[in-house]
Structures are given as C-alpha cells and as structure tokens.
Specification:
The complex is a heterodimer of chains A (about 290) and B (about 280). Chain A is mainly alpha-helical and about 290 residues long. Helices cover about 75% and strands about 5% of the residues of chain A. Chain A has ten helices and two strands; from the N terminus they run αααααααααββα. In chain A, strand 1 and strand 2 form a beta hairpin. In chain A, helix 4 crosses helix 7. Chain B has about 280 residues and is mostly helical. A two-stranded antiparallel ribbon of chain B has the order 1-2. In chain B, strand 1 and strand 2 (about 230) form a beta hairpin. In chain B, helix 3 runs parallel beside helix 5 (about 80-100) and helix 6 (about 105-145) runs antiparallel to helix 7 (about 150-190). The N and C termini of chain B lie far apart (about 70 Å). The relative contact order of chain B is 0.08. The chains are: A mainly alpha (about 290), B mainly alpha (about 280). At the A-B interface, helix 2, helix 3, helix 5, helix 6 and helix 7 of A face helix 3, helix 4, helix 6, helix 7 and helix 8 of B.
Chain lengths: ~290, ~280
C-alpha cells in the first residue's frame, strides 16, 4: 500500500508540474492516467480508463489561470481508486467528479497563499535582495508540489478502505445511472468547449463537423449465420471518417478561410493605398 | 545597438543564438506560481533575472529598477510568451544602449508593448493551443487509447508538443529578429484576426465531430406491440443520426451561455441520468 501511495503522490505532483511546465498538456487525463496505470501495474486498463476520463473532462481547460474544475486531481484519484480496488469506469467517474470540485477548492486556497506572498516579492526588490527573491520563488515552487505529493500519498494510504466501503455501499440503480451519466457527460465538456469557440458567423462549422462525424457511415458485416437454410448477415454501422480524417478536412477548410481573410485584408489595404495614389496623381496633374 | 541592427539583415550572432535558446527554455517556467493579483507577473520578473543581470549588471540599481518594472500584472498564453520575452529583452538592450549614449528612453514603451501584446497573443494562442491543437491531439489519440494501445498517449504527446515546441522556438526567434515593427503591423493589418478565425473554425469542426463520435448517449426504450416492437433509438436514428448527442450538447451549451454554471449543470445531468434510468428510458 505504501508503494501505491507513493506512486499516486508522485504522479499527482508530476501532473501539477507538467500542467505548467511548457504547457505540455500532459496533465490531461488521457496521458497522466495512462502513466498512473502503468506505474500501478495496470497498463492496458489505465490507458482505456484514461480515454474515458478524458472524454468526461474534455471541455475543462484552465485558461488564464482560472481552473473551472481540477480535473487532473479528480481523474488521478478516481482512476487510482478504481484500479486499486478493481472497479470500473463507473466508479472512477463517480469518484472523479466530486474530487475534481474539491480539488478546485484546494487550488483556490493555494492560490490565495501565493497571492498573499506577492507583496513579499515586491518588498525584496525594493530592498534590493535578489537572492531572497529567487529563494522565495523556489520555496513556493517546492511547497506547491510538496503539498500535492503529500495529499496523494495520504489519500491513498489512509483512504482506500473508506473508499472501498463507499463503493460497495452504492446500490445497483445508482451504478447504472452513473453509466448513463458517463455517456452524457462528454456533452457538458463539449458544451464548455463550444462556449469558448462559438461565434455567430463561424458556428455553422460546428454542424459541418458534426455531420462529417455522424452522418457518414456504412454497414459493416460482422457475422453471418445460417438460419433455416438462408444466410443471415449481422451488421453494425461503422463511421466512415475517423477524427484524424476529419481533422485533415478541417485543416483544409481552415486554411481556405485564412487565405480568404488575408486576401480581403490585402484588397482593403490596396484600396486605401489606391485611393491615396489617385489623390497623389491628381495632385501632380493639377 | 549597432551590431543588433546589422544582424537583422545578416542573421544572428553566436551570442544571440545562445540567448534565443536560453529564452526558449527559461520561458517554459512562466506558469508557475501565478497569483490572483498579478497572474504571471511575479514569474515574468523571475524569468527576466539573468537577462536583466546581463544587460544592467548584477546587483546594480538599474537592475532592481527594471525588475520592479517587470513585476506588473502579466497574463498571456504561455506558448506565445517567448515572443514577448524576446521582444522585451531586445528593447531592454536598446534602452541600455540609448541611456549609455546619453539619449532618452521612454520606459513606458516597454510596458506598453507587454500590455499591448499579451491580449492579442493570448487570443490567438488560446485558439491555437487549446482550441485547435489540443482537440486535434485528443482526436488523433483517443481511438488508440480506447482500445488500450500505448499509441494513444504517445501520439497525444507528440501531436500536441511537436507544434508546441516549434511555435515556442520560432516565437523566440522572431521576437529577436523582427522586433517591434512586425507585430504592430500584424495587429494593424488584421492578419492576427484572420489566423485566430481559422484556428477557431478548425476547433469548431473538431468539436462537432467529437459530439458525433463521443457523446454516446442512447435510449434503450422499447415497447412491444405484439406483432411489432417499437425501438425508440432506431426511429431517432432514421430521423437524424446522432440526434440525442447533438440535442444534449446544444441544450448544455445554451444553458451554459445563459447561466455559466457548469457545476449546476453537472448536478442536473446526474439527476436526469437517475430519473431516466429509473423510468427505464436509458441504461
């Protein structure tokens, strides 16, 4: 248990580091939960869980230092408990969502601490003490990650039995509603995403993307059985376009729009230049 | 100063290349320890320490004066920040050269470049990194991840971070190379708006595609009328495939636009899931 607790503590601190260092996006569930799974000894389950949690939190991004929900913390704890207790996605999501909300609370209070020492930084510069400035910066850096490491360690070390009892106490109907909820939740994530992207004049592109993803499919024959001397085919509908292919089409469309906009800008500036040239011509003709 | 202008046409010196590499790596720390009052301000000054020490000398009054100037509020997309760092360092170099030659230099010019750039660069940066690149990376990777393949997380790492590093490197490079004239031109001509629009369109298309492929909400409602069975999902599919996912996403979007309360919406969705499950419509 100590090893597992150390691993979760480490992954949590690593996630917090990767979230900010170079903005690699590697703190997103799709990557960090895969790492967590591998370290805990469940590589394949970890990757699949990572994909599912990514979909739940797809719209959650921290922009401008504002974190709507600490999806990193939520997914890591949700996935860790699910993997360690041999539970599935439902349990991971059930745990991840409230923990993500709690994580935001923790993050906000940490940011209050960081904000309160801004004045100290200013004072050090006034006092011309660059060494203290550098040390304070490193101290808050270490303290921040140390907090998350300790949190991860303690929660797994002390909390696993509690969480296990909690999961076992969940009745079946709640579990199946959680499965329904996890199918619905990506809609919330995508809606959040849409809120940042939506503009009246470009919104049709959203529906174009939806159409490419939803309408084009073919019937894929998956099995054939002989029923009363006649062949009966079992088929399932398969999407024709993968997201990669849609991204390809999307890039082409985006390029068209950019070129069009740039041409418009050029024409406008030519027009302005042209007018002034004409005036110049008139001036000389006169 | 003169060597700086000469190099604009002939390329960069060894020393400047070293500076570019240094700014490229050091600017990666910008997001650490952000505060409510100054956002990245404190770390912006922290990042500037070695460069300002280089320009003004260690422990000098000029060094502390410039440190004080750089502690102001700052906030932009971290991926675009190397451009501003490079620009600001170039301007500090010019400032030092001007003062050494007994000329005046308006300190407010440096501050106003920072303020003028952080907004537009955050706009285009967020649409590149968060709107387009991140969604494309997830789109490429998630299929592999869902089948438990290591290709998923690895592709996610590469698809996002190769462009991320390239943008950061070239942002640093151009910050030094083109100086202040280019960006004011790009702002004036509106080229930035054109690119922002293009990237957000790409993001919209991917968001639409993911609505179709990853909101897997379906109904299991079926009614038996003796001879025929009525399966609600089949009927819905024949009207418009993906109708429910699109409907739910749109409803969530409209709600968020009006109320901007994701947590409340989350609770509503949970309650709806429970109700729909208990009614036997889903699950």
């Amino acid at each position: 248990m100590i090893t597992n607790a150390l691993i979760v503590g480490f992954v949590l601190a690593l996630a917090k580091f990767l979230d900010w260092y170079c903005q690699t996006q590697l703190s997103r569930p799709i990557f960090i939960v895969s790492i967590l799974g591998a370290l805990l000894g469940y590589p394949t389950e970890g990757i699949i869980l990572a994909a599912q949690l990514e979909l739940v939190f797809i719209g959650n991004v921290s922009l401008g230092g504002v974190m709507p929900s600490d999806f990193t913390l939520g997914s890591i704890f949700g996935a860790a408990f699910a993997l360690l207790l041999g539970e599935d996605l439902t349990a991971a999501v059930t745990l991840a969502l409230p923990l993500a909300a709690l994580g935001t609370l923790l993050y906000s209070s940490m940011k209050v601490v960081v904000t309160s020492i801004v004045a100290t930084f200013e004072r050090y510069i006034d006092e011309k003490n660059i060494k203290a400035y550098k040390n304070l910066w490193i101290a808050q850096f270490i303290a921040f990650h140390g907090c998350y490491f300790t949190l991860g360690f303690l929660c797994i070390y002390l909390g696993t039995d509690v969480v296990s009892a909690f999961i076992n106490a969940i009745p079946a109907w709640v579990q199946s509603s959680m499965t329904v909820a996890s199918a619905m939740l990506p809609a919330l994530g995508l809606a959040l995403l849409l809120k940042t992207l939506w503009q009246k004049e470009t919104c049709p592109y959203y529906f174009l993307g939806f159409g490419l993803g939803a309408f084009v499919f073919y019937n894929n024959t998956t099995a054939a059985t002989l029923v009363d001397g006649a062949v009966e085919l079992t088929s399932s509908s398969t999407k024709v376009f993968s997201l990669v292919q849609i991204a390809f089409i999307g890039a082409a469309i985006a390029a068209l729009v950019i070129f069009g906009e740039l041409r418009k800008i050029k024409e406008n500036s030519n027009k302005v230049a042209g007018v002034s040239n004409d005036e110049g011509g008139d001036f000389f003709n006169d | 100063m003169t060597s700086l202008t000469e190099n604009k046409s002939t390329g960069l010196t060894k020393q400047e290349n070293k500076l570019i590499r240094s700014v490229f790596t050091r600017s990666m720390w910008l997001m650490f320890c952000t505060s409510y009052t100054k956002q990245q301000g404190t770390t912006f000054a922290w990042t500037m320490i070695p460069y300002l020490e280089d320009i003004y000398g260690k422990e000098t009054d000029e060094f502390y004066a410039s440190m004080a100037r750089h502690q102001n509020f700052f906030n932009t997309t971290p991926g675009m920040s190397p451009f501003i760092f490079a620009l600001v360092i170039a301007m500090e170099q010019e400032r030092k050269a001007a003062l050494d030659n007994g000329k005046e230099f308006d300190d407010a010019a440096i501050e106003s470049i920072k303020v003028a750039l952080m907004g537009p660069l955050a706009g285009i940066g967020d649409s590149i990194f968060v709107g387009a690149l991140r969604i494309i990376a997830i789109g490429v990777a998630i299929g592999f991840s869902q089948s438990g393949s290591w290709l998923g997380p690895i592709l996610f790492l590469l698809v996002f971070n190769i462009p991320n590093l390239l943008i950061r490197y070239f942002a640093t490079y151009y910050g030094f190379k083109v100086g202040t004239s280019f960006i004011s031109q790009a702002l004036e001509s509106g080229a930035i708006t054109a690119f922002t629009k293009g990237f957000s369109i790409m993001g919209l298309i991917m968001t639409g595609a993911m609505t179709a492929q990853y909101v897997s909400f379906t109904t299991t409602f079926a009614a038996d009328f003796g001879e025929t069975t009525f399966v609600l999902q089949t009927v819905l599919d024949s009207i418009l495939p993906g109708m429910l996912p699109l409907g739910i996403t749109m409803a969530a979007f409209v709600y968020l636009r009006k109320h901007n309360n994701p947590v409340k919406l989350l609770v509503i969705m949970f309650i709806a899931s429970v109700v729909l499950t208990l009614l036997g419509i889903c699950g």
